[in-house]
Amino acid sequence: MSQKVPDTALKELDQEECLRLVSPGGVGRVAFCGAPGPTVLPVNYRVLDGTVVFRTRAGGAIDQDLRSGLRGLDLKIAFQVDRIDETRHEGWSVLIQGAAHHVPEDEVAAVAGTGVEPWAGGDRDHYVRVIPVRVTGRRIRTL
């Protein structure tokens, strides 16, 4: 016999609440149009001055696919963070859409101070910053 799923309520979150939820940092997913097609990869991140910062490997998929070679061209990406409680059927999800920029050498020291540490290991000293243009989120709660 199947277990009854509890009644739930879905609520849209405002930008302030969304940024509060993601501000502690942790693990999120970067989505972008990569060379082989739509690509979604997990990254460890931190929030710094309203932007999302993560580290990647120089020459890796994120690094290569986010380089256009054209000065001033913004590459749009999506960044998602969520927390889910499967037992209680509750959770939240935040989607940040905006431009991804490689952090210039003269700004690396400030960004390195965020303490973002990639779990993947290896040489991941290449910093990427996401500047939010649109921030949306939803929360689902059991009634």
From TrEMBL:
Q: Record's superkingdom?
A: Bacteria
Please give the name of this protein: Pyridoxamine 5'-phosphate oxidase family protein
